[in-house]
Amino acid sequence: MTTNLLRLEPQKRLYSLDALRGFDMFWITGGGEPVIAVLQILGCAGAIGPQFHHVEWEGFHFCDLIFPLFMFVAGVAIPYSLKSLREKEVPRQKMLLKAFRRLVFLVLLGIMYNGLLQTGFQNVRFPSVLGQIGVAYFLATVIVIYFKSFRSWFFWLGGILVGIGIIQLLVPVPGFGAGVLTPEGCINGYIDRMILPGRLNGGIFDPEGILCCLSATGISLMGAIAGNILLREKIGDWKKLLYFTVAGISFIAVAILLSPVYPIIKSCCTSTFSLLSGGIGLLLLSLFYLIIDHWGYRKWAFFFRVIGMNSIFIYLFTRIVDVHTISNFFLGSLATLFGEYGNLLLSLGDLFLVWSLLYYMYKKKIFLRV
Question: Which residue among 55, 67, 88, 146 has its CA within the 20 to 30 Å range from the CA of 273?
Fold first, then answer.
């Protein structure tokens, strides 16, 4: 990572990691719209369509995986980034300062994403997706920098998951008691209302609030542990894949088994949600690594890699620029001629515009780094 906004592509990158990041960002850049349009044409949108929308509170849909998967992938990159710095004999203090700068920059970008430049500080929302990524990445980086023992990372991961569980289930909230995991009664919202200034996204709670950021650190740390395993040359590819698969299935199983008493809730980032999303992240990393880096089938993943190389840029771009309006300007009249296929044409137009811009940046070696 670098504090320079634009830089040339680094010489050595894990291809599967960029592809997985791009696969994740694909759904943010409008990838879900063509899928929904196809489902509507086939008449099965009612059964599968909800997976492309967030659950209202408790439960898990495919759409709920997008954000934590990005944090997981960011965690995988931590050992790679620190390895490069250690090879250059960069002191730990400078590593920490670099991570802290990234945290500050992401928090500021997140506040601007929430509309600071548009509406000013009046009723501004300070928590954000980018801010939560920044906090989780920073705290996971601190653990990796100052605790070199691989075993200690597992203790930290267990401590975070268990600690968040204890706070959410056993610490009482005035007027509600302990373990009331509702928007009104969860301790996440209580802490956010007491400490955070400005507007909360949920009114009485914020899905990117203080306790959520601390909980999300566990997801980034899962990624960092996976990244460390990938870096170990003494461990063969099949053993790495076995580790990821067994751990991923185990995390998912534990999350499901605990869910009746400790629900899976994204909006307050319960530890069961972290385990489930981290487990799926491990399985996806295993799949992408197997196909792309082990077997060497890379061509199919180029589409995703182009997106993954500029993930922060496209996240901000789609917030600022109304791509659908541009697509409709060029394809609107044509879409009306296609009847029920019109929405599919427009959504593909959106995706084409976004990917074309990213491809241009890729060819020009322009990459936004934080």
Answer: 146
Residue 354 located in a structural domain: yes
Q: Are 107 and 128 in contact (CB under 8 A)?
A: yes
Domain assignment present for 28:
yes
Q: Which helix or strand (DSSP H or E) is residue 9 part of?
A: none
- Over range 299-303, report the average pLDDT: 95
Residues contacting residue 46 through CB under 8 Å, at least 6 positions apart: none
CB 219 within 8 A of CB 69: no
Residues spanned by the domain of 137: 6-368
Residue 213 contacts residue 131 (beta carbons within 8 Å): yes
pLDDT per position as a tens digit, 233-264: 899 999 999 999 999 999 999 999 999 999 99
pLDDT of residue 10: 42
The model's pTM = 0.92
Please determine, for residue 47, whether its predicted confidence score (pLDDT) is greater than 80.
Answer: no
In the chain, the number of structural domains is 1
Q: Does 219 reside within a domain?
A: yes
The two tokens of residue 209 are 């609030």
Judge whether 211 lies within some domain.
yes
